[in-house]
Specification:
Elements lengths: L12 H11 L1 H4 L1 H8 L11 H43 L4 H39 L10
Helix pairs in contact: 4-5
Length: 144
């Protein structure tokens, strides 16, 4: 379940959200993934649970890192646009269209910043489930 490749479009918030939704598939399906790959006591000899948990750990780390990078990149881009629009607004205070564009970009920036909070909740949930099911099979490096 690799993350989609390619640059994230920060212009359209709906497209940005759709990209994150697709990238969160691994987190949404973690319980199913663990149920189908980590053996019960009766099948313990047939599957290498340690290897499976390590691969899942690496997939989760990659997904979380790439999503955070995309969100922060879009926040930086949108912040830059807001800054530029604010500077233009200082010069042309009567420009209603400019004010509307500034408000629109500020709203988009706030929504993107809120995605960082959503990301934190999604990640915490995934790590909790991962640790419950994989703690006896695989110990992640201490950086986590």
């Amino acid at each position: 379940m690799a993350a989609p490749s390619g640059a994230a479009s920060c212009e359209d918030f709906a497209e940005f959200q759709e990209l994150l939704r697709v990238m969160r598939t691994i987190d949404d399906r973690i319980v199913h993934e663990l149920n189908t790959t980590i053996p019960t006591a009766s099948f313990v000899g047939k599957v290498d649970a340690g290897q499976t948990c390590r691969e899942l750990y690496e997939s989760l780390m990659d997904a979380h890192t790439s999503r955070e990078r995309i969100i922060k990149n879009c926040i930086a881009q949108t912040s830059s646009v807001v800054k530029t629009l604010r500077e233009e607004r200082e010069k042309a205070q009567d420009d209603v269209a400019l004010l509307k564009q500034l408000r629109k970009e500020q709203t988009k920036l706030k929504l993107m910043q809120s995605e960082l909070n959503v990301e934190e909740v999604v990640n915490d949930r995934s790590w909790k489930v991962f640790n419950e099911r994989c703690r006896i099979h695989y110990k992640p490096p201490k950086s986590q």
